[in-house]
Here is the input.
Amino acid sequence: MFQVKPNLEFESILADSVEKGLSVLGESPKQVIYSYLEDKYNLRKENIASRTDLFVPAIERIFGSGAGFLEAEILKILYEKLGLTFEPGEHPEAAFISSLEKAQAQVEKGGERR
Here is the structure.
């Protein structure tokens, strides 16, 4: 399972993207998800970006096949912030993980960001 390499710039961008991606559900549901992640997975909001190895399967367990929608929303926001084009794949989990890897590599290369 992909885990974000220590990179504070990328973690900050990803954390903001997760926050905005979960916001599509509304403020109350977003807070419930954060509480559930902390209670069930010991995953605090501020650690999500550095613990994608816990976050990705947790979201998939919570939402089942609907997790792909949230993952795509998070990736669209992340890629927009990085000035990249997001193209979803056929296998949502694999696409989410490989898309995170691609985005992180872009940050590490010092690519342009909006």
User: Anything to note?
Assistant: The chain has a mean pLDDT of 84. The domain at 8-108 is CATH 1.10.1200.200 (Non-ribosomal Peptide Synthetase Peptidyl Carrier Protein; Chain A). Residues 92-108 form the longest helix (17 residues). The chain has one domain: 8-108.
